[in-house]
Design brief:
Layout lengths: L3 H7 L6 E4 L3 E5 L7 E7 L14 H17 L7 E4 L3 H4 L8 E5 L9
Antiparallel strand pairs: 1-2, 2-3, 3-5, 4-5
The structure holds guanosine-5'-monophosphate (5GP) and zinc ion (ZN).
Length: 113
């Protein structure tokens, strides 16, 4: 399977890692859209949230809690931050491996583009 994020998980493509355990990897986005822009992904290849299954329930919960922990470690908890997961074409997803964008360090706008 030709998946950029699976290659990052395997270490075939280098990344600026922020956190790693046996199930989760977090690394800085190559093209940051905010002073802090971290991608949090499951090591398991799941195409997007739309393709997650019941068996992924615990993993999805762990991912969310880990995002909050990483945000805290980056000193974003008090100021606030944004978590985004783009899904499919109109959602703006460009990499078909489930990932959450953690964005912080500036005032976010709403609605998003
Ligand atoms: P999406 O557009 O699918 O929501 O997000 C994909 C994100 O992955 C984009 O923000 C893009 O900058 C980032 N990205 C794409 N390729 C790489 C890469 O090889 N390394 C890193 N660190 N980020 C990448
Ligand atoms: Zn993948």
């Amino acid at each position: 399977m030709d998946c950029i994020f699976c290659k990052i998980v395997k270490g075939e493509i280098p990344s600026d890692k922020v956190y790693e355990d046996d199930q989760i990897l977090a690394f800085r986005d190559l093209s940051p859209q905010a002073p802090e822009h971290v991608l949090i992904i499951p090591k398991k290849h799941i195409e997007s949230l739309a393709k997650a299954e019941k068996e992924d329930l615990e993993l999805l919960g762990r991912l969310q809690l880990k995002i909050a922990k990483i945000a805290k470690d980056l000193d974003l908890e008090e100021k606030g931050y944004r978590v985004v997961s783009n899904i499919g074409k109109e959602g703006g997803q460009t990499v078909s491996h489930l990932h959450y964008h953690l964005l912080g360090g500036r005032m976010m706008q709403w609605p998003p583009g």
